[in-house]
Amino acid sequence: MNPSDVLIKPILTEKANAQQDKLRRYAFKVAKKANKLEIKKAIESFYGVTVTNVNTAVSPAKSKTRFTKAGFISGRKPSYKKAYVTVAEGETIDLYANI
């Protein structure tokens, strides 16, 4: 896989920001077919850091329902894969530089 196809976007939540400060761990939304070696190679080439550990988790699809004037509308949110990437001691990734 091409490194630009592996990484979809960083996950910017309170939990992810707390892990960045304490554990040097960054969360990314990645392609479902990407494996840990491809994720590690993509992070190292994009951000120029040394990756020490990669953990992945697949978030399952969820059904959502909302009430409107026309009645109930039900649908599904798709599943996606998350990667938790730990970088080497003393290195950081600046996720807010491109905003």
Strand and helix map with partners:
Layout: H1 3-6, E1 7-10, H2 14-23, E2 25-30, H3 36-47, E3 51-59, E4 62-68, E5 71-77, E6 80-87
Quick gist of this model?
The protein is of the alpha+beta class and 99 residues long. The chain has helices spanning 3-6, 14-23, 36-47, and strands at 7-10, 25-30, 51-59, 62-68, 71-77, 80-87.
CATH class: Alpha Beta
Shape: elongated
Mean pLDDT: 93
The largest pleated sheet is described as: 4 strands, antiparallel
Secondary structural class: alpha+beta
The CATH architecture can be named as 2-Layer Sandwich
What would you note in describing this structure?
The protein has helices at 3-6, 14-23, 36-47; strands at residues 7-10, 25-30, 51-59, 62-68, 71-77, 80-87. By secondary structure, it is of the alpha+beta class. The model has no long low-confidence stretch (mean pLDDT 93).
What would the keywords be for this entry?
99 residues; alpha+beta; Alpha-Beta Plaits; 4-stranded antiparallel sheet; two-stranded antiparallel ribbon; 3 helices; 6 strands; 26% helix; 41% strand; elongated
